[in-house]
Structures are given as structure tokens and as C-alpha cells.
Amino acid sequence: MSEAAIKGQEPVDAVAGGAVKGADGVDTVWVYGFDELDKVEAILPPNDWEAARSLLGGKGANLFEMTRLGVPVPPGFTVTTAACNAYLEHDRAFPPGMWEQELAALKRVEQTTGKGFGDPANPLLVSCRSGAKFSMPGMMDTVLNIGLTDAVAESMAELTGDPRFVYDAYRRLVQMFGCVVMGIDDEPFEEVIEEVKAERGLKLDVELNAEEWKRITGRFQKLFKAFTGQEFPQEPEKQLELATRAVFNSWFGKRAVDYRNATGIRHDLGTAVNIQTVVFGNMGIGSGTGVAFTRNPVDGRNELYGDYLLNAQGEDVVAGIRNTEPIAKLRSEMPDVYAEFVSICERLEHRFRDMQDVEFTVERGKLWMLQTRNGKRTARAAIQIAVDLADEGLIDQREALLRVTPDQVDQLLHPQYTEATRTEAVEAGKRIVEGAVNASPGAAVGRVVFDADTAEEWAKRGETVIMVRPETKPDDVHGMIAAKGILTSRGGATSHAAVVARQFGTPAVCGAETLRIDVERKAMAATTEGGTVYVREGDWISLDGATGDVFVGQLATHEPDVAKEEALAKLLSWADVHRKLGVWANADYPADARRARSFGAEGIGLCRTEHMFFEESRLPLVQSMIMADTAERRAGALDLLLPVQRADFQGLFEAMEGRPVIIRLLDPPLHEFLPAYDDLQLELSDLKVHLQHHDSLSKIDDALAEVRKKEDLLARVRDLREANPMLGLRGVRLGVIYPEITAMQVRAILEAAVNVQRKGIPVEPEIMIPLTSDVGEMAVMREIVDRVAAQVAEESHNGVAFKFGTMIEIPRAALTAGKIAESAEFFSFGTNDLTQTTYGISRDDAEGKFLMRYVEEGVIPTNPFQHLDPDGVGQLLRFAVAEGRKTRSDLHVGICGEHGGDPQSIALCHDIGLDYVSCSPFRVPVARLAAAQAAIHAAEDELAAAAAAELAAAKAATA
Question: Which residues contact 166 (CB under 8 A, 6 or more apart)?
Fold first, then answer.
């Protein structure tokens, strides 16, 4: 994608993208000193820290604020994001006046430090770092030690008495300048260092002496000239100019663009450039450098967490070329410095009201703070810190809820691999799939099986299995339930495998196209950079549903104990106070229902009865019902299914203890319960071939009987075949054509409710008709339901109150919602099918063929099966809710598709005015937080709109 196209994706920010006028309204101010925050605030809206971050970048804004707080910050200045955007928009030319302002700011730094830029007698060195509004660690460019030249280096060696330190710093400048500014690969420089170390048999860079670093610096300069055709610049101002350009240019470097695409950061924000005096931690034993967090970023405990090194530069800590010391040890080695550091950390945390990630350097006993920013943290730490900060009064509960992302809650509920485990496995060449569809989060380790029956069989004997399939189908459900993980070579984030995996909280990786899966031979081959890796049934693999990666072998996992997550429980209790949307769960079995309740579900929004039919013991009963050629025979088969279904529903009602349970009547086409047509043809052919080889009449008779049975089955499957089953005889249409199926299911529901009610347990059954498209269908279903309900009440002498409603999955149903609401007491939007029918696409085919490319190329903004489409499907929801409630003011409305667990979709559901969302049990905590965040954001928007209206009215009154 071109730079122009990227920049055109989002509207330009008023501060970050436009010129900022100076106090006189004429000159554009592009550069501000760290001590000039008051001048910045004078041109911005009052108390708008976000505007300051937009203009100065996050790093710059924090340096300005630290300076104002009196924190010891090395002097410097910031070139604004506005300058970057102007530079990029005008053929990469500095905007008028910017370079002159940068030089003037540099003069002020010289005056403050008493040093001269390029002065060998008392040299000033500076760093040139990027700093966007949002942290993008390592994604843009940095140049250190600017100002070093041959003359300055020689003088500094004499002044410091430490030529090794000086030439180590100088070679770093030449190397970074060559790579960052001039685009030279890093390898030639590293080869020189390795060659010099090899001459003396050394292993580590720190073992090189002053003379060797000086020699390396000279060779680096020769490399620089060989690659660029010019000498390494000996004019410090030229170094600074080219470094500034390099940082601006890095905003549209590939890794920066990819990172922003992955994290949702806008492309038009630009980066600031921070020029800061270099202080050195490698000037003897009284010097040092380190990185620390004001709280533990792993578990959130309120303790300093970090590392430092004496007589070292900052990158030595980060690069790991020397063993670091824990920050607590600094207390004994530099007690005064440590006490000052602790005090500063406390001040910074109170000012920014969040855990801080700080960098510091001690130069000859003087502490300098180089940077502070909100620290990255694990999901567990994010939750713990948010709750603790609220309990400490630094933030309120509302802000604590906004500090934690729904994804972090999701991560906390699934087994995970530590980053160290993942890195070790990658380095060992164990990764066989990288970045496939991360369909269902969590870590899973198990033995590979290639079919559902084997998965179930092995699981029953105590084996941990991962089921591998090209794709999964409804009749694989029993194996999916038994498996600890699911891997498919086809399908997307909302494929059958993905949906079912999320339903059961099973980690899953889908769409792993580099795998060649041979189900018959029970083996798969993975194409990797190191060659082809073969995996056979019984081999161990480990998959990561959060990243879409798969590894051979057994990786160690960390499984959180949700019951012990006290901070999460407290946070979600606050969420329940703030949210307006109810949060229900999709659950087909009592165990699912109990799990959903433990996660805070307030009801069951979808029980799919067909999943019960696919169980091994019941499938023959279902097939005999389908094969019946008369209504009487079909009724006989249904009589056998009735007690089974009744027991299913009774378990659900007991588990939910009076909370609402929405049960969807049979939805899929009947042929899904029968063997595949092509498989039956092959089996029939094989039977006929074998028939010719039997030599006894009894065997021939048996074989003929088997052939006739298979022919009957094939004929029935042929009768049920459809060109487009998704839009064929399914859902309500089954109920109209085969009313006895509907009658059996309704009877099972109501009899189960009566039995549970007799135990003193309240029940709230809700009967849902799937795939309705016309009010006439609802009339037919209502008649059946009411008739059976009357029969059950008479037989049991105990009526049960229930609700009657429908799924809205067809655009026509949404458009005629007013009429449908005459019969329906509730609507549940099946947004997966509604998205398919609105777009006119098949989910699995679209995701496999073109939908992902549409998203990548910007044809559509997001995958509509992952995030509810607000402009099409969302408008249908709005219309249906409005029309339905015109007819029935107390109409209860929710969604039960996969979108019910997606935070972005939940926000849209809040805006539309739904009563609840329903999602898989494992997404319930996520939905509770997302619903609270949607309510908080909506309230903030209302306040902002009211304030804007009040301001507009005031202006109009004074006009």
C-alpha cells in the first residue's frame, strides 16, 4: 500500500496534522524545549493532555512534564509531530523555519549544560529519538552520540582518561548512523567486530580494549564510505540534520506501518523527534544505567521491578550482553541515588496515575531520568494494577474499567505459554505453523488424532489429544469436546471449528494452509523454512490459539486458576454496576451452563438442540426418525427421542436455577445427521464388489440385505440433498413440513420445566423458532406450541409459564419485525447467518477465497463475521428493534451469534439498545467488561455532546 494511500485512511488530527501558530499568530512553532510546556499548553485546549501528546508525542510530553515537576532530566527539546507531517506532505522537505528553530533550541541546550556542540574542549553529545503519540517500541529509528567527530573523540579520550569508553561510543554512532540514516545493512559492521574479537580469541564485546575499539571505528568509517561514496560527516550539525530526517522518514518504514496496522494506530499522527543531551553511565564505578517499572509488570504487585548495571550504557541492559543486577541491590551500592530514584518513581506514578516504565542513568553519582511512559504489562498485572490504583484513590472505578482491555481478560482465562517458552521453541526450530488464524485463545498440548471418534476414544482412556482436520463438521462435535485443542488447515475465525472451539473454551488454530493433512494415512506434513516436518498420529504438538502458531513437541503451559483471581472478580463486580446490557451465555449442556454461571452469566441466550442429537448414543435414533417413510413411524422414533431431550433440558433448567433459558428448536438440514452422499456411494460400490466373492447362500443373503439397507439410505440422502442447504429445508421450515418434530421438542421442554418446578426450582423457559422469514411461519409454530403446552398442562396438572420468540437471521424478518412481534415475545438476532444473508456470501467460502484479501487491501474495513457490520447488518438490527417495539413495547431483544462476545460488536449492541448479548461461557467475563466500557463511553459522549451544545448556545447568545 502506498504512503499516500495509508495517509488517506484516516482524517488528519487537528493538532498532530496541522501547523501550530506561535503566540504572535504569524510564525509557526515547530520546536519546543523540555522546559517550555507552558508555551505548548497556551496553544492547546485547557487541561487537554491528549492534545499535548498528539503534538509532542508520548515520550516528549512526558519529558516536558518531568522537567516541570523538577525531575532531573537531561536538557533537550522536541520537534513536533506537526513538523513531521508537514515534512512528509511536502516531498520530505523541512517546513520553513523548522531547522532554524532546531539550531536555536540546540544553542539553549548548550547554554544550559555549559557544553558546546562540536566543541572538542567541552563537547555536547545528543541523542535523536522518535516519539509518537502512542508507544511503538523499536518500530522507528534512533541515533545516539550525535556530535562525536574525530577531533571530539580524541579530545574526549584525553578529558575522560577513558579512551575505551570514547571509541566504543564513537563506533556506535558510526554504526547507527550508517544503518539508520544511510540504510546500510548491519551485518558488515558486526562482521568487523567479530573479526577483531576472533584475532584475540575473545567472545564478548566488553572484552575489547580501547585500541581495538579505535581500530574498529576507523574500519567502520571506511565501510561507511564504501557503501555511501562519502566520508562519515565530521560536521555535528550535519549529523543532527540527517538524523532528524531519518526519524521523520521512519514513520513510514515498513515495520512501523505494519505495527500500526496490527495495533490500530492511525497513520496520520506522525512522530515527534526528541533531541536530548547524552549522559553516560559508563564513566567508572560511580556511574550506571538501568530500566525499572514502578510496579511488577508480571503480576502487578506494588514493588519496584527492574535491572541496572554499573559502568554501562543503557543498551547494555536491554541487549543482555552483561548480567544485570536487580534494582533492589542499588539500595546498597548507591543508597543516596536509590532513595532519590524511589522518590521520583512515586512522584511519576502519582502524576501519570499509572504504573511507569522508566529509564535512568547515573553519571558520576548524579541521577538522570531519561524517559517515563506507561509500562507494558501482562494481563494479570493489568487487572491487578487497575484495581489497586482504584483502591488507592489514584483513579476511580470507571477509569479502572477502562484501563483493562477485554483481550486481557480473555488471556487471563486461558492456558498460556510464557514468552520464554515460545522463544526457546522458535529458536529450537520447533514451530511448524506461524500466524495462522488465531481462532480461539489459549495454549494446548496433546497427541495428534485425525478424526472425532479417535479423539473421543483416546480421551476416554486418559490421553490428552489435539484433533487435526482439514476442517470440522457438526458430526465432529463429540471429538471436539474431547480434544484439548483443534487444528485445521482450512476455515477462518468464524468457521465451524472456530465457533465450537470458542464455545467450549478450547484453543484452536484454523486456516493453517502450510499443512498438508492426510486423514486416511493419519499424518500431516508442514512446510517450514527448515524443510518439511512430518507429524503422525500419536505425535505430540503444542498450539497457541492466541497467536496462530503450532509447535512440534510438548511446550510447558501456565494455566491460571480463575477462582483465585480476586482482582478480576472485583473488577467485574464494578463492571456489573456500570453496564446496561445483560450478559447471557450460549450453552448446550448442563456443564456449560454451570461454567457460564460461574463466569457471571445471567441466563442462557442460546441452547442449540441439534448438538444434543449428534451424540453417539442418540444419532441412530435421529437417523431412524429421518429414514421413517410415514408420519406414524417418524412419531415412533420421536417417542424414543423425547425422554432423552427432556433429560437434557431438565439438566439445563436445574443448572440455571430460575434464570432464563432460550432453547432454539431444531435448525440444521436433516441430511447433516446422515452419512455424506459421496461416502455412501463408495461404500455401496465396495459392498457390491465384495458380494461377488461370497461362496455361501447365507453370506450372500446377509450381504444383499446390507446392500438394500445402504441403497435405502443413499436414496433418502439423495432426496434430502439440496443445492444450497444453508437456504434450504432447515429451521422453521422443518417445523412446518415436519410438525411432529416441533411438537416433540416443545413437549420435552415443557415437561422438563414441570419436573424441575416440582422440585422447588424456578424455571424460565423460552422457546425460540429459528430462521423465520414470514409472520405466517410464526403463526404455524405458535399453534403447535400452544397446543402442546395445553396438553402438557392438562396431563401434569401443572402449567408452566414460558416465552415464545424467534431468531432474526433473514433480512426479510428484520424488515417485517413489526408484524413478527405480533407473535414473538422476544427477538434474538442470529448475527452470523444474518451477516451471511445480508452480504449474500457463505462465511467459510468467503473467508477462504476473498474476504481476508478484502480486509488486507482496504476494500472493507474489517471482517464482518468478527465485528458486527454497523452500516448494513447494524442498520437491520436498529430497524427491527424499533419496529418490533412499536408493536410490543416490552419486546426483549438480544443477540446470540459469535458477535455477542466481541467488544466492538457489544458497543454497537449497547448503542442500538439491545437488552442483552449472549456468547460462549468463556467469553462471559469479556462481555461483562466490554458492556461496562460501552456504557461508560456512551455516557462520556453524551456529556461531551451536552457541553458542546451548551457552548454553541452560549456563542449564539453573545453573537
Answer: 153, 156, 157, 160, 210
CB atoms within 10 A of CB 99: 18
Catalytic residues, by residue number, are 496, 896
Percentage of the chain modeled with pLDDT above 90: 63
535 neighbors 572 (Cβ within 8 angstroms): no
Those residues whose C-beta lies under 8 Å from the C-beta of residue 158, and which sit 6 or more positions away, are none
* Residue 729 Cα to chain centre, angstroms: 37
Residue 913 to residue 915: CA distance in whole angstroms: 7
Output the DSSP codes for 888-940. Answer: -TT-EEEE-SGGGG-HHHHHHHHHHT-SEEEE-GGGHHHHHHHHHHHHHHHHH
Length of the chain: 959
Q: Tell how strand 76-79 and strand 271-277 pair up.
A: antiparallel
Cell of 150: 574525530
Could you give the CA distance from residue 711 to residue 689 in angstroms, rounded to a whole number? 14
DSSP states of 573-590: HHHHHH--SEEEEE-SSH
Residues contacting 877, CB < 8 A, separation 6+: 814, 829, 831, 895, 908, 909, 912, 914
| 3-class DSSP state of 55 | helix
CB 616, CB 939: distance < 8 Å: no
Q: What are the tens digits of pLDDT across the range 42-81?
A: 898 888 888 999 999 999 999 999 999 999 999 999 999 9
Supply the DSSP string of 302-324, one letter for each residue.
SS-EEEEEES--HHHHHHTSS--
For residue 657, what is its C-alpha cell? 436455577
Answer yes or no: are the C-beta atoms of 375 and 294 closer than 8 Å.
yes
Mean pLDDT of the chain: 89
Question: Do 230 and 138 form a contact (C-beta atoms < 8 A)?
Answer: no
Cell numbers linked to 829: 438476532
The grid coordinates of residue 764 equal 424460565
CB count, 10 Å around CB of 815? Answer: 16
Count the neighbouring beta carbons within 10 Å of the beta carbon of residue 378.
19
In angstroms, what CA-CA distances link 399 with 405, 743, 939, 947?
A: 12, 51, 13, 20
Asked if 300 and 380 count as a contact pair (C-beta separation under 8 A), the reply is yes
How far apart are the C-alpha atoms of 765 and 648, rounded to whole Å?
13
Query: pLDDT band at residue 138, thresholds of 50, 70 and 90?
Result: low
Radius of gyration of the chain (CA): 34
783-813 tens-digit pLDDT: 999 999 999 999 999 889 999 999 999 999 9
Give the span between the Cα atoms of 674 and 559, in whole angstroms: 39
Bridge partners for 835 per DSSP: none
**What SS3 class is residue 564?**
helix
Query: 289 has which bridge partners?
Result: 309, 361
Left if phi > 0, otherwise alpha if psi is -120 to 50, otherwise beta: which for 913?
left
